[in-house]
């Protein structure tokens, strides 16, 4: 159906004004698709309204316009009917006969260069929009399907049936957690010739995840302080039993906690959904220890990525006030991806496929100790994750490392940082930057020439442990 509006000879701008302003309600009120043909001398302009939308009580068309009509269209519509509707739909304007060529001559000479750019921009926006919708569909919870209630007298469904409804990967994850927890319970806590009180237990974090924990205490009542150990990436707290032996022999109590996804704790092995969760669990663990040991000075110890976790946790005032200081060995402060492309795609892939194992970032082949026996013990330990790093875990390390490097000057807590100069996993110069830029009044750094990443598993581990104990005693004597 066509409505023909005879129009006298006029300029293109006046023509558009008449087309869009003269009688829009009469033309577009009731039908979904019509053509309005405007006649100007021998030229016919056909405006095809493909869709209309409801705005208030009236059906109002929204028509895309070419460059030469954009200003006229927006101003004319605004003057007569107010602001343009926020909801827009696609339409088309096509010129018949020679009108399009005549109109193009009236446009700016830059339009031939701008239009291709706009088309490319439109394609990019469509891609981004599609990706965003796909992402929302991926993360938003699906609506639950409510089943009808069971009949009266019907026995409840067995746990075995509920277990079958779960996805296979979740069942495997739970089974793996049970297996790892049994292995963690079997880790040797003390040497035969050393007497101390030790225990293992479960601590529930802020998200109600079960965290496997250990503690060692000297038999004497003369407790000088407590050191809380936060292990590094892919390892577990049981590896620090020998370090705990040295601490308890000097009348220091020791606590240690396995991260989420590590050791005997809940979660997929080697997968850390957020290091901020580890930071929060560390703070909650410290609060519980302070409640159980009132008045006893406490220190936090962190190795590698655990050092980054400890440093960020200590940046919160309520955690800093509970500590006398922190000890960092080989902290992960300036971590770089294995390849620049990894850092570029990690934020996207960590959302789309967070548990994907990125083989190109696996650093298992890098030596972390000069002691062959220590290397063999680490990589033959079933509780040490030796598979490729997972995408979300790698992204979280890059993210916390970048955050800490931007905020070195805000560090005020007393600290002792230790690093090997031959470390190929984390950067010893970043530890030097921490020492130089931190605002802490009580701070110390010690670089061990030629030592590798796992300082407490180097041949000189006894001397390094004594350096840490000496620093804690010096810190306590100055209080």
From TrEMBL:
Task: Tell me the superkingdom of the source.
Answer: Eukaryota
Ranges annotated as spanning the membrane: 120-140
Residue ranges of domain Serine aminopeptidase S33 in the record: 223-460
InterPro entries, per the entry: AB_hydrolase_fold, Hydrolase_4, MAG_DAG_Lipase
Name of the protein this chain belongs to: Monoglyceride lipase
Pfam families attached here? Answer: Hydrolase_4
Keyword Glycoprotein in record: no
Q: Which UniProt keywords apply?
A: Membrane, Transmembrane, Transmembrane helix
């Amino acid at each position: 159906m066509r409505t023909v509006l005879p129009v006298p000879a006029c300029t293109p701008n006046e023509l558009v004004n008449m087309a869009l302003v003269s009688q829009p309600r009469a033309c577009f009120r009731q039908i979904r698709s019509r053509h309005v043909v405007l006649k100007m001398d021998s030229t016919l302009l056909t405006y095809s309204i493909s869709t209309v939308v409801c705005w208030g009580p009236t059906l109002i068309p929204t028509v895309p316009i070419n460059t030469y009509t954009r200003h006229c269209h927006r101003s004319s519509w605004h003057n007569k009917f107010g602001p343009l509707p926020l909801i827009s739909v696609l339409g088309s304007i096509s010129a018949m006969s020679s009108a399009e060529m005549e109109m193009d001559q009236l446009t700016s000479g830059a339009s031939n260069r701008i239009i291709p750019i706009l088309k490319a921009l439109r394609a990019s926006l469509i891609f981004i929009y599609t990706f965003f919708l796909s992402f929302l569909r991926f993360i938003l919870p699906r609506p639950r399907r409510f089943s009808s209630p069971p009949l009266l007298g019907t026995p409840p469904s067995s746990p075995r049936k509920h277990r079958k409804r779960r996805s296979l990967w979740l069942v495997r994850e739970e089974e793996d957690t049970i297996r790892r927890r049994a292995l963690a319970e079997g880790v040797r806590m003390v040497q035969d010739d050393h007497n101390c009180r030790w225990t293992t237990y479960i601590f529930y974090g802020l998200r109600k995840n079960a965290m496997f924990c250990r503690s060692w205490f000297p038999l004497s009542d003369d407790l000088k302080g407590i050191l809380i150990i936060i292990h590094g990436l892919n390892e577990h707290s049981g590896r620090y039993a020998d370090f705990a032996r040295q601490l308890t022999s000097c009348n220091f109590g020791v606590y240690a906690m396995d991260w989420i996804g590590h050791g005997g704790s809940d979660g997929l092995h080697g997968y850390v959904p957020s290091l901020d969760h580890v930071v929060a669990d560390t703070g909650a663990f410290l609060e519980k220890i302070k409640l159980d040991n009132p008045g006893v000075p406490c220190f936090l110890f962190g190795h590698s990525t655990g050092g980054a976790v400890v440093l960020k946790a200590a940046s919160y005032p309520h955690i800093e006030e509970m500590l006398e200081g922190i000890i960092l060995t080989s902290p992960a402060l300036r971590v770089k991806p294995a390849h620049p492309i990894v850092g570029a795609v990690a934020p996207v892939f960590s959302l789309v496929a967070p548990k994907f194992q990125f083989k190109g970032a696996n650093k298992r082949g890098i030596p972390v100790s000069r002691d062959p026996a220590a290397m063999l013990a680490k990589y033959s330990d079933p509780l040490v994750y030796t598979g490729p790093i997972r995408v979300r875990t790698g992204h979280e390390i890059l993210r916390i490392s970048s955050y800490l490097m931007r905020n070195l000057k805000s560090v005020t807590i007393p600290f002792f940082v230790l690093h090997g100069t031959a470390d190929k996993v984390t950067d010893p110069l970043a530890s030097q930057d921490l020492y130089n830029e931190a605002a802490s009044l009580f701070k110390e750094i010690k670089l061990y020439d030629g030592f590798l990443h796992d300082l407490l598993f180097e041949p000189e581990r006894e001397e390094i442990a004594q350096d840490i104990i000496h620093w804690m005693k010096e810190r306590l004597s100055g209080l």
